[in-house]
Amino acid sequence: MICGFQRIVLLASVVLASTAFAKSNPSDTKDLYFNEGLYYAFQEQYFDAISKLDAELGQYYGLDEPELNSLHFYLNQAEFSIGDFELYYRMHNRAGRAIKSVIEGNVPDVIRNDAVYRLAKIYHQKQQPVNALHTVERIKGKVPEKIKYDIELLKAQIYISNGKFQDAITILSKIKSISEVNGYASYNLAIAYIGNNEVDKGIIQLDEAGQISSSNKYVLAIRDKANLVLGYKLMENKQPQRAKKYFDRIQLNGPFSNKALLGSGWASVADENPKQAIVPWTILSKRSVIDQSVQEVLLGLPFAYGKLEAYGRAAILYGNALETYSKELERLDNSIKSIREGKFLEAVVREESRKDKNWVINLRNLPDAPETHYLMTMLASNDFQESLKNYFDLDDLQKKISSWDGYLDSYSEVIAQRKQYYTPMFPPMQEKFRLLDSRMKLRLEQRNKISERLSKMLIAPRPDYLAKVNERITLNNIYAIEKKYTQGKRILPQSVKERIDRLKGVIQWNIETEYQARFTEADKNLRLLNEHVDRLNEKYRSFVRTRQSATQSYIGYDDQIRHLKNRIRFADEKIKLLLARQGHVLELMSIEELERRRKRIEELQIKARFSIAESYDRAVKKQQNIELEKSKKLLLKEEAKAKEVYKKELKNNKLENEQLKTKEDKEKSGAASKNNEGNK
Amino acid sequence: MNKIKTVITVLLLTSISLTSWSANLTREQIKGLDEQVQDIKKDVLAISAELQLLEEKLLYPSTSQVSLFVSIAKEGNYSPDAVQIKIDGKKVAYHIYSFKEVDALRRGGVQRIYTGNIQGGSHKLDVSVMGKKGGSKTQRKISYTLNKGVGPKLVEIDLGSGDSAIKIVDQ
Known about the structure:
By secondary structure, chain A is an all-alpha fold.
């Protein structure tokens, strides 16, 4: 309904969530992989977005020290986003679980309520009113500012679906004048009143909703819907004159215009003013014949002419209607046949067609593709839309999965090549490494001993440990001379003894007096040695890593790849099965809808046949009446003429009689006077 | 009974469709199928995530992995047209942006433009970008030395708002 706006709001919630969720991030580093997920989500590629975030979260949870990973600071947001994207990917079962975990988690009210709202909306759209009600009632505390009225509107709609009309009326009365939900709230309030058996209030409210002024096409559509509902309601109540006023309010190019034009015509006819029906019905009759209102008006228009006694015109229009119905039936039959042949599914999944946002219209206009001709009409059904989306999703999944199997084959090939390359190389390299490793260990042990000794000498100085090589050799020589004399039981001459003592004294002197300098030197040398040891250790680690990565590059994948291949094969089979079933459902829905339409057109056809015969009869009768009238008039004229003649004749006769009488009288009086004169 | 009738009438008046299908097709069947579709989506998503991890481990081990990401400033009017990236003089990535992609970048999304393997040590990264800023065309370049250590190397190429120099964030 307010889809576009809500989508912006929901995606904005991700950004909003980033500030609300983010744990304190000292370095303010963004997690690039998480943002990569968002990059796909913002392009509505939810499969990729979910899959990338899933992989990233999987890696995060597998870390020994996850708190060192940059995702740590966005963890809640990432978990929330996965649920969010799953909702967009129409996985409400799983998303419901994800969102539930967010709801039950320790998150701010604004975030929680946003999630509850979306979950409730899904339940409402999926026609699960009780679940929707339980969910929406969990909205408590602060709500996101941008959707606060949408939440109220949804609540009211859910109450209506559950028959709690009074609760809906309370909410809708408060928000009906808010611009964000203007139109929707007024319309729903009217529905709630009607549901609550307050029909008069409902009608007043519908009238109000039908007069909202807006430039938003969705608000205008809901305004038209209010007028349409009210118009038909008044028609039911036998108030056609009032109904016509509401039908005439509806836009001529809106989604309800066809029904409005049809209704307006019927209102005029019901009001005994068929002449007024001619204009709206003529407009409607010129529109696309796919629409059921247009199909019906093809009978309505001649009916109106019939009422105006233009039976000839009516008969011609009935004839046209019959012709149109026959063509439409033929088209429906072709569509049904084509759908049964599987062409419909082939057409809708064409890659190039779906890239265009007007793909439905384009498909409908394809020449020689009767299977897609009624697609637009079928899309009006929510079940059909959902099924079609599922079909698209399954088709995409199948394409993805079929390419993955190929990837795995390539990986196996790479692994085999690596194995072939590394396997002969490892044994001699390993032998060499073993020797070097033991030498290294020995040297490191020596170094550790020196270090340990120097540490101890800090507490208990041992100058003898720091004697130089020549001093040690000299001392050893001296000890050897002394030993030689002692073993031979000879007495060392005094002079030699003195020289030996002097030499030993000199060496001892040097060792003792140079101790500090020598200790410092030794420490310096140890530090230098440490640097070498560090470099050695680094090389050692690097070698171990390289050896490990070389080993890991081909060992330990077999099971995983085999397992993945099995899962892919299993999923592929399941997708194929579901695709077939979903396709079958779509075909059944389409065929049922088309057959329903076919039946309706057949009914109209029968009516048209009867009406055409009736019109001809009436036209003939009218003609006969006219002729009869003419003959009557002629007869009357003749009669009048005859009467006139008769009258004239009568008059003439009378005159003649009078003249005759006068003559006779004259003759009689003449004869009398003659007699008198004679008598005289 | 009357209440049920009222609710149905109201539902018919609202946008909720109550299309009834024949005995061949019940609402329960449609719902059941929808749930199965959701289940298979879940399975395929799990396979996809595992496949991604496998690919990364197999083809781009952390010792040699380098990933380059592109981002731009939010809410600006800068729009990149194309990006070309070279590592040690070799072209590794070239991308022409669609409107949707630029929009996704502007809203905070980050594009992974390249993932590959390089040896440890210093490498020369050359980025060249063509774009539009307020209707006029812009062309910018940057060279950067990246040091590859033991772990995976992640580099963010922040194209900013088109005014300033390209920023390289080396993670």
